[in-house]
Design a protein that fits this description.
Rossmann fold; Helicase, Ruva Protein, domain 3; 4 domains; 4-stranded antiparallel β-sheet; 3-stranded antiparallel β-sheet; 15 strands; elongated; binds glutamic acid
Amino acid sequence: MGKNMPKKEEIRVRIAPSPSGYLHIGTARTALFNYLFAKSQGGKFVLRIEDTDLERSDEKFTKEIIESLHWLGIDYDEGPDIDGPYGPYRQSERLETYKKYLEQLLKEDKAYYCFCTEEELETEREAMMKRGEPPVYSGRCANLNEAEIKKFLDEGRKPVIRFRMPAKKIIFEDMIKGVLEFDTKLIGDITIAKNLETPLYNFAVVIDDETMKISHVIRGEDHISNTPKQIAMILALGFPTPKYGHIPLTLAPDRTKLSKRHGATAIADYRAMGYLSEALLNFIVFMGWNPKTDQEFFTKNELIKHFSIANMNKAAAIFNIEKLNWLNGQYIRKMDLSELTEECIPHLEKTNLIGRVGDGEWKITATDEPIIFDQLKKIIALEQERLVKLNDLSELVSFLFKRELTYDKQLLIWKKMTAQDVINHLSETEKILAKTDKKDFEKEHLEEKIKKLIEEKKLGMGETLWPLRVALTGLKASPPPFDVAEILGKDKTLQRIANAKSLLEA
Ligand code: GLU
């Protein structure tokens, strides 16, 4: 390469969430596309916290945003907790920088103090709307002389800072939406700071993107109308303009903006419900990107390899919870059993079916008996084929953790059997099981023995297995009795059969 070749511009992207709420699924999606864009091209991804609105910002949300991003595996290279060359990464710690540029704009007369009150502005807006004009600022304070300024100050008015918007067409090529054109006359002189210490979003973002050397701004389509405002300021400040890409929104199935009324919107809620991060990541990426192949599941590295912004959808994505449920189920099926067990244990603990007593040691809450990882693994194996999300698990397996089952004795009765028939059948299996060694109490062996019994004594499959299964589970639908018997162990299995018999005798 020749000495004078310009250095290739480094790709640097960012997300800039405000810590006024949990990480929203839409923000996570924006984060993922930024991350993939950067990683697929050897660039850097930055997390910047937009906390200038101190009243609405809360440190607990910053923590939560960071935690949710880590959980999803959307790893940023620089951020509040990962120092980099362009920090600090919280706006509240960058006030000096904003002030410097505000002063510059004021000095160059590219910004001015505006003393209009809210009421005055409102009256102005109403009058413009009545005349059928767009409600832009009239420019009343754009050219105040010193005497006028003094008068306002004497009245105790607190001025804001407005940007002197040059009248021009702003045209840019959006990476997703194509060429976009805006007329700044329809924007007017916007407020960019409440005062020198309190910048507002559009201004702070321009300064941050420049001082953090952001090369590409990829964000939600809801910010499109901000882009010409930001470009106008960038030009006034003599900064290079980053490239922009606006991602179509995610809509609820009723095609309105996705909000709490449609269900959970926070990543933390999906995590608590027992969605796996890989499933959620795949779900999110497909809301906006199309691999142009039939591949349905992508690891993070595969996403990085295949991602291209050219394959981003131009139309809004629809949030489809069934799709997410399906994906999550698929990931559960494919997961290594030990790993799945690790993921499930917190859910069993949360519902108090088990309690942790030490490292790798638990006890069953209802009975105080110890239970080890391998036993938990067997329980999870029972449900791996049908579980949709991890927090459904406790309800499905709670029968295994109970001291005593409560169910309607009618449930024990298979088809036209009488109560006495059922007692007789249970007694037959009981005898066989009682004779089985504790160490042979495992499902294949039990299945073989009981099926042999059914055949020899012509007991009937349904007649034998249904009452046995209900005796062990108390449920209409459950995993097979042999699997359950193995998990319960000999003593509990026999105890539950005895209980079922006495229930029928009563
Ligand atoms: N705080 C803004 C948001 O979360 C950032 C927008 C931007 O990326 O410029 O929507």
